[in-house]
Amino acid sequence: MAAAVKSRLCRAHRGFLSFTRRYDHSATVLKRQYDAIVIGAGHNGLIASAYLQKGGLRTAVLERRHVLGGAAVSEEIFPGFHFSRASYLLSLLRPHIYQDLELKISKVRLSLQKHGLKVFMRDPYSFTPMLEDGVGGRPPRSLMLGADLTKTQQEISKFSEKDAKVYGDFLRYLERLACAIHPLLDAPPVDIVGLTQGSLTKRISALKSLKPLVKSGLKLGKNAPDFYELVTAPVMKVLNRWFESEPLRATLATDSVIGANTSPSNPGSGYVLLHHVMGELEREKGAWGYVEGGMGGVSQSIARSARSLGADIFTNSEAEQVLIAPDGSVKGVVLTDGTEVHSKVVLSNATPYVTFKRLIPQEALSEMFIKAVEQIDYTSPVTKINVAVDKLPDFLAAPNIREGIPGPHHQCSIHLNCENVEVLEKAYSEAQRGLPSTRPMIEMTIPSVLDPTLAPPGCHVVSLFIQFTPYLLEGQRAWTSEDKERFADSVFDWVECYAPGFKNSIVGTDVLTPSDLERVFGLTGGNIFHGSMSLDQLYLARPLPSVADYRSPVKGLYLCGSGSHPGGGVMGAAGWNSAVRVLEDFKKL
After folding, report:
1. What is the pairing mode between strands 119-121 and 312-314?
2. Are 341 and 34 in contact (CB under 8 A)?
3. What is the pTM of this model?
4. What is the pLDDT of residues 472-482, one digit of tens each?
5. Range of the domain at 211
6. DSSP-assigned letter for residue 189
7. Helical H runs in 9-116?
8. CB-count burial class (<10 Å; 0-12, 13-18, 19+) for 375
């Protein structure tokens, strides 16, 4: 099997082109005039285009890459192996967007709606194997969490009876706090300027921006102190109060640092945990699933919806600069090939740094604003490794019953090097010194166990989301190919410890360090959230207090990406909120 797969890798170019043809059907004619232009076909940009077109604005989306989706993209890196190359799980996409754009997931386990989105639910959803010697010939212990509370409590009781008893209460505690955030997600932040400046009429009009905040407060009620504590405290302060067993605390703590350059002991890590549990799939709170065909399936379904409404979407169309009219307002964009496309408004799905430092002529912005943009934190701790394998991993803690037949644990987020919080803390500490973690935190997923379309028969695609790795190595030097190879080999050695034979099963790898994530996907600093999700860069201050309402200092230019409220993940709220703001303003332009 390995030889057959490896021989197919020689046909990578041909397979890559066929994949592009299958997944990317762009509009054929770029007009010279639109009402709105969206820079970047990430999921937020596509969502914004759909709502703008639905609202009556002739809209075009310009994507610099050959494929749609931004970080929510599927790519056939090796022939026959289709990867969610960057983002890899779905949960946070707002329910009303499913419905409005006819993407809504039905109640059946596997769903197909008008625009082709299929999602596989995962149950169980979390698997943490231990590195230990089994007792009496038994396998090492492991912890598996799922939707069945009784089974999950049985799993937890292997480590602590006390923790098993209170786990259900903990889930309800998180759900209460997460649900209170929902009103804030689907609306811009409070209009502070409108409330404090201008005429009485404008101030009264701005009062409606308080409604989501009031609704959120009413939902919280007596739980407001708990909410405040969780979003401001180190997550370990909360987890230590609830639980005593290390495997459970460490497993839960991974969601407090995933994608974030922080440790479970740092203030604000509690909010990162809350951010990752506030989604839903199939009306199941906090559930995460695999998209058929990879995460590009989400972007493609949104693109189909936008096109059905009349939006034009173009790949291989890189915007070089936003055009500014003599009166200081936008008048369109110029592409790298010199083509000018005019419009009354421009929405940028790029990071705020790319938007204001590269796309906007610097003379159109104040020096103070530019300095503020330069202070936005984009630090990333993430390296993503996509691996093609010719057999299913076989874990010591849960041996395969039959070769090639997945067990329940294979569909999970598999947490390696997550037996105790001390391991996570050490990994974080090393990266702060410019050292790739010697024992990194690894979140491993194998979506092909539920979605056979992703890999050839008997083979699988494996996603390794790894922390902590710095953007620059010790001495402020860039990663070399040798550094990447050495780190990847170290990661594979750790996987091998839990699943012997993994290294021999590898037939192809794609290593994306923070600098690679920046280069390939335009993620400044390699930050998957378009900017840190720290407390100083949330809500009224995301990405900066002066642009938290999606409007920029340049009239007619708006932000619509994850660098805006409410932040990162495949959520779509920033795209929706910015489109609503543009539609409100358009008649005044």
Report:
1. unpaired
2. yes
3. 0.92
4. 999 999 999 99
5. 160-244+255-287
6. P
7. 12-23, 43-54, 95-100
8. exposed
